[in-house]
Design brief:
This protein has 4 domains: 221 residues, Rossmann fold (3-Layer(aba) Sandwich); 91 residues, Glutamyl-tRNA Synthetase, domain 3 (Alpha-Beta Complex); 41 residues; 74 residues. α1 crosses α10, α7 packs across α8 and α16 crosses α17. By secondary structure, it is an alpha/beta fold. The chain has 20 helices and 12 strands. The strands form 5 sheets. Strands 1-2-3 form a 3-stranded parallel beta sheet. The chain has a 3-stranded antiparallel beta sheet with strand order 4-5-8. Bound molecules: glutamic acid. Glutamic acid binds next to β9.
Length: 453
């Protein structure tokens, strides 16, 4: 069996770091198993789904390193959903219900008041053709419910019916179908809820493994029953924990700030975003993993913990910095060039340890090419004015800084910070930055002379 997975977002908004987890988990699983990855747009809601969101999701996934093998759209597949719905209707498993939302609300309140679970009583299933015709004559349109197989032949005598599966993340799971209402699969306006199209697609597209957030656990019990009713073998399921902020807040409220697009624009590396998204909420250490191939090796669905995956968006910065400090020149050369930095490996290796993002390299490129905002404190004026005379002659090399500061030390008696800092300030305009020994040859003789008083 070819492993086939899918990431199935609704293109009704941009994806954030929380939504990137099922995308990455499915992608990594497919890579590990030599399988296929389908990007499936759950766009049956024609009003809210937008092409621009679909495009932005594709772009975000590519940036993260996810290249779908196939892209599918539910909006192109209504005929298949209609056929499946008809099959269920013919089998007497999909029945019309005419209650209005208000009637259903009232009924649930009554059940709660009597201390009963608010489970739908299958009133629609009892109705005769005449009663249905009367509703239709009133102008009511039915919604359609699937009869859960939680009975022994008489749907009004339900009994405990456990649907079980061995979850890739959570181990053995069980959902009692008698505790659930028959799910509505088709709304009164004829549109499909997510459940049936998702199952039909999973069957038609040969999806072997469904990896998604744990907010879908209860759906899975229902979905397995519908797979069975359609005569299809259910896929293997895995439900991962959901990402929340440290105080337990879900991410949807902070969508904007943590959207993949905004993280990209903030100059973060895709691998630091992917590392955080994949490793948070697992028993593994959250650390920057340099490549997708390395993340594939590290990835393990059984390490996902049962509690929520708490994270602090600030962690991303530190993780990104650690990743950038190790990035080889080849990984950044095109981006440096795009920033107008016409420098080579030496430059990058000199500055990367001081960069939180690759964009920070621009700051140090400015230090090298100038102009810089040279600074001299009053108490250093005399010292700095001597510096020009002791600058080693000839070309500036890696040895020049040592020779220069030794000579100045001998001349002035200054040492440590008092010796180095005034030179750093006058040459770079900064108090901190890359190692002066490596920076000096990059700044070059002429610039040094121009910056010294
Ligand atoms: N469109 C659904 C969602 O975003 C897909 C869930 C699933 O993977 O089955 O929640």
């Amino acid at each position: 069996m070819t492993v086939t997975v899918r990431f199935a977002p609704s293109p009704t908004g941009h994806i954030h770091i929380g939504n990137s987890r099922p995308a990455l988990y499915n992608w990594l699983f497919a890579q590990k198993e030599g399988g296929r990855f389908i990007l499936r747009f759950d766009d049956t809601d024609l009003e809210r789904s937008k092409q621009e969101y679909a495009q932005s999701i594709e772009q975000d996934l590519r940036w993260l390193g996810i290249e779908p093998d196939v892209i599918e759209r539910q909006s192109a597949r209504f005929a298949s959903y209609d056929a499946a719905a008809q099959k269920l209707k013919d089998a007497g498993l999909l029945y019309p219900c005419y209650e209005t939302p208000e009637e259903l609300d009232r009924r649930r309140s009554r059940q709660r008041a009597l201390g009963r679970p608010p489970v739908y009583d299958r009133a629609g299933l009892r109705q005769t053709d005449e009663e249905r015709a009367a509703f239709e004559a009133e102008g009511r349109k039915p919604h359609w419910r699937f009869v859960l197989p939680n009975h022994d032949g008489d749907p009004f005598e339900t009994r405990r019916t456990e649907v079980t599966w061995n979850d890739l993340c959570r181990g053995d799971q069980a959902v009692d179908l008698a505790s659930l209402s028959d799910p509505v699969l088709i709304r009164a306006d004829g549109t499909y809820l997510y459940t049936l199209p998702s199952i039909v697609d999973d069957v038609d597209m040969g999806v072997s493994h469904v990896i998604r957030g744990e907010d879908h656990v209860a759906n899975t019990g229902v979905q397995i029953a519908i797979f069975d009713a359609l005569g299809a073998k259910p896929p293997v399921f895995g439900h991962h924990n959901l990402l929340t902020t440290r105080d337990g807040e879900g991410l949807s409220k902070r969508k904007g700030a943590l959207s993949i697009g905004s993280l990209r624009e903030a100059g973060l590396e895709p691998m630091s975003v992917a590392s955080l998204a994949v490793l948070t909420g697992t028993s593994q250490a959250v650390e920057p993993v340099p490549t997708m191939a390395a993340l594939v090796d590290k990835f393990d669905l059984t390490s996902v913990s049962k509690s929520s995956a708490k994270f602090d968006p600030e962690e991303l910065k530190g993780l990104n910095a650690r990743l950038v400090h190790e990035l080889p020149f080849e990984a950044v050369s095109a981006r440096l060039e795009a920033h107008g930095i016409k420098a080579g490996q030496e430059f990058w290796e000199t500055v990367r340890g001081n960069c939180e993002t690759v964009n920070d390299a621009s700051r140090y490129w400015q230090v090298i090419t100038g102009p810089v905002d040279s600074r001299i404190e009053d108490e250093d004026r005399e010292f700095v004015s001597k510096a020009r005379d002791f600058l080693p002659s000839g070309e500036i090399t890696q040895e020049s800084w040592g020779e220069w500061t030794s000579a100045l030390k001998a001349e002035t008696g200054r040492k440590g910070r008092g010796l180095f800092m005034p030179l750093r300030r006058v040459l770079t305009g900064m108090d901190h930055g890359p190692d002066m020994k490596a920076l000096l040859p990059l700044i070059g003789k002429q610039n040094i002379l121009d910056r010294l008083p």
